[in-house]
Amino acid sequence: MKRRHIDLALQGGGTHGAFTWGVLDRLLEDERLQFDAVSGSSAGAMNAVALAAGWAEGGRKGAREVLRRFWSRVADRLQLAQWAGPWLGGTSMLPASPLSMALDMASSWLASGGGNPLRTVLQEEVDFDAVRRCSAIQLFIGATHVRSGRLRVFRREEIDVDAVLASACLPLLFPAVVIDGEAYWDGGYMGNPSLVPLLNESAARDLLLVQVHPSERQALPVTPSAIVDRINEIGFHGSLVKELRSLAILQQLMREEGLDGERCHTPLLRKAHGLRVHRIEGGEQLDPLATPGPLQTPWHHLLDLHRAGHAAAEGWLQANYTHLGRHGTVDLVAEYLDDSGPGPRSNPPRSTP
Fold first, then answer.
1. What is the mean pLDDT of residues 81-97?
2. Cβ neighbours for 231, distance < 8 A, ≥ 6 positions apart
3. DSSP 8-state code for residue 3
4. Tell me, what DSSP letter sits at residue 108?
5. What is the pLDDT of residues 152-191, one digit of tens each?
6. Residue 40 pairs with which residues in a beta bridge?
7. Among 29-43, 44-58, 163-177, 305-319, where is mean pLDDT lowest?
8. Interatomic CA distance for residues 60 and 313, integer angstroms
9. DSSP E strands, the chain
10. Are 92 and 108 in contact (CB under 8 A)?
11. Do the bridges between strand 182-186 and strand 138-145 make them parallel or antiparallel, or are there none, so unpaired?
12. 3-state SS class at 296
């Protein structure tokens, strides 16, 4: 069997990370795929280290088992904090987006008096020694350096529980994570996730984005809470948009100048020339899953998100597997270099109440 080598870029987004878990679960079932490198921030970083630890211990099956155990423990913690308020959707200002879910999840944990329980969950469910010895997969975790505002990328050999907590540190809820005397916040501010290490350090030419933030929303936000929600969502998704736009500019310039990327000495140019980009997106279909039903347990809510991710990956594989190794299924130049906007609409955008 000829395996297709791919890199994965995993977005963060609170409990919407369970959607990414579902995507990974389905991709791991397919033995035609080989993961060369994974880049993740926030919840994407948690999925990445769980995958790597499980892979080191038991290959595909081990990765699937560790991912399931990790999200099961997250559900247990949410169950303990279930009556804190935000988790039930009754007091949150930001009811729908991935960032809102991250804030709600963290707020619930804080209200339950347990501090940041992710440290315990990560320490007990993810073997970081196994992560660091997982030589089959390159691993990159992004965090934002507070003093400079720059992105720091932690590579596999230096990843520990503090690096992952730094990548998932929402500063309005948790104190900055200090590593080697320097403070870090959520990696989503500067790279959600970062693509540069995948371009510079991985040989795979197919890059699959697993995206929980919608590329586009149809509704126009009009209420204060909906406006704040959309502003925050744009901010956390914007870092990925900027990287994809920069990559599109580079590809277009190389084509216009007639540069043969395969002859370039710089690895980044060679990779950019031959890169094939793909996307599995949760999008607006995740909005109905933003909060659990009134009688739904956190575990069943996470399973709903998992099923949505699994189904999205299944659909993508059926439609696009044959394109791997041949051409991309996301046209970066068309999508990210057209500054004219979507153009006039026959129907105006509807408003979000």
1. 40
2. none
3. P
4. H
5. 999 999 999 999 999 999 888 888 999 999 999 999 999 9
6. 10, 141
7. 163-177
8. 16
9. 4-10, 33-40, 138-145, 151-155, 177-179, 182-186, 206-211, 220-221, 276-281, 351-352
10. no
11. antiparallel
12. coil
How does pLDDT run across 116-163, given as a tens digit for each residue?
Answer: 778 999 999 999 999 999 999 999 999 999 999 999 999 999 999 999
User: Distance between CA atoms of 262 and 98, rounded to whole angstroms?
Assistant: 39
The structure tokens listed for 163 are 């690096």
Cα distance between residue 165 and residue 151, in whole Å:
15
Q: Tokens 């008096």 belong to which residue?
A: 113
Give the Cα separation of 194 and 240 in Å (integer).
7
How far CA 281 is from CA of 23, 224, 317, in Å, comes to: 10, 27, 13
The pLDDT score that the predictor gives to residue 348 is 45
Contact between 19 and 286 (Cβ < 8 Å): yes
Q: What gap in Å lies between CA 256 and CA 235, rounded to an integer?
A: 31
Rounded CA gap, 125 and 131, in Å?
12
Mean pLDDT for 235-263 is 88
Closest CA to 210 of 75, 34, 31, 47: 47
H helix intervals, 141-223: 161-167, 196-201
